[in-house]
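Handout, section B. The chain below has 112 residues.
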Amino acid sequence: MALLSPADLLASSILAMADKVAKLAKQINTFAKSHGGAEAQVAYIGQRGARIVLVGEDGGWGDLVAPSYEIAQQAVEKAGVTAHESFDGEFAAKVTTGPYEWKRMAGIQIGG
């Protein structure tokens, strides 16, 4: 078994990162096409990585988890969607909540 050189390890790591960025960007674009466009916000969630919150032009929303904040930011940039610094104000107001979300939030409030 041959040992990889530091250059080989770095190249392998860069390729793996680029692959993850491309996969996330494709998922973001799929969401955007399904919802008439999309905007995003990236939030650091600790060792788990970063959460990409997506809000469609139709008010639909979803999220993805990336292995790092850097990968999440690159994926949003590659997808070409508008990125917000925070999830508040006009951006948050674009989210449409339906019966499922209200029922789920009520369940959380009453211990369900």
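Note. The mean pLDDT is 85. Compare this with the example in section A.
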